[in-house]
Amino acid sequence: MSQSTSSDASRRDFLKVSAVAGASLTALAVAPAVHAAGGDTLKIGLIGCGNRGTGAATQALNADKNVKLVAMADAFSDRLQSSLNTLKNDADIAAKIDVKQECCFTGFNAYKALLESGVDVVLLCTPPHFRPLHLQAAIDAGKHIFAEKPVAVDAPGIHKILDACAEAKKKNLSIVSGFCWRYHHGMRDTMKRVHHGDIGDLVAIHTQYNTGSLWHRSLKEKADMGWSDMEWQLRNWLYFTWLSGDHIVEQHVHSLDKMAWALKNEYPVKAIGTGGRQVRTAPDFGHIFDHHAVVFEYANGLKLFSYCRQQAGCTNDVSDTLIGTRGICHINANGPGAATITGANRWQLRPRRDDNMYQNEHDELFASIRAGRAINNGDWMARSSLMAIMGRMATYTGKVITWDMALHSKEELKPEKYEFGPLPMPAVAKPGVTKFA
Fold it and tell me: Residue 311: CB partners within 8 Å, gap ≥ 6?
């Protein structure tokens, strides 16, 4: 069986919508390079000052000798100040932080002020719901971008991402995705061997992201702090589909993107799944599921068996198995960043401490800016995000969801208005009852 492909019609349709050409990670753009000289100071702005945003800022400041963090934006001032204090207390990067009080922006429109503050590079690290809006605005403003994964929570957001990334290509702007495994050198070596045929033609794939519980902000805390519904949902964003996409989109998307990479960026034609809310049933946990199981099917019949779970007290396992006609590739089975190939072409990858995929992606982003060779991850970062959204649609509805259905879905997950005040909690999805939109 040959490696799987989506239907030609779906692929043409998707690429027509996206208008993002090219299959490689990097492309030589025709526009003049921005800040190509090593002596120019690159000014960085951080949008979204949570733990991931703080980490991304640290890695960006370590990626280039002549960079400065000059502006920060977040919905909440306490989150911004906490992030800024953490960064200032890091001796390795403290000298590169030059964030004046007038460049600390808060509120829903904080991103606009940051983009007008003179930054060259923006780090988009808010909850995923805001990614399409912020990415489009950053490209319109002519900024290079690091965009955390996923890049949207619904199909309309995916379309906005695709259009924006096509415009970025015209402007010679780099967009590096937070799908960090693509920047892990050992995993690149692993995928190169899979693509070379070391395990033969792929016949089945199994991937799982089974973990314990994550942090949450309780309704008691909401009451004690006097937070409005909107503020509580933003501070408890993991548990609301409009903000996170559910954990199949927010977390398990890493695994789905990795498997899309193994298939040379080909995507499924349909999906069917099951899922529910078995352990995290309290209102503290919003309305998302705590487990999903999805079977993705490709045009040639290959099936990807996908599982994710966030339940405490269970056996955790975050690993992938690629089954081929000549061998099997196991990824992360022996620890993060490890891989083995069994069969005719036996091989083992042992993780290296210096292979930091989070740092690698920023190193490559800033190197691309200096060289004037723009990286544009737009096409596959959007399609991998859509694949996860497709999986959520299958588990929420209990129905078969095709790639075309997911791509053209009219469901747009957003509140009527962005303001602090009342915001009803959405109902928990019920397979067989919840309708596809």
Answer: 212, 213, 278, 279, 280, 290, 291
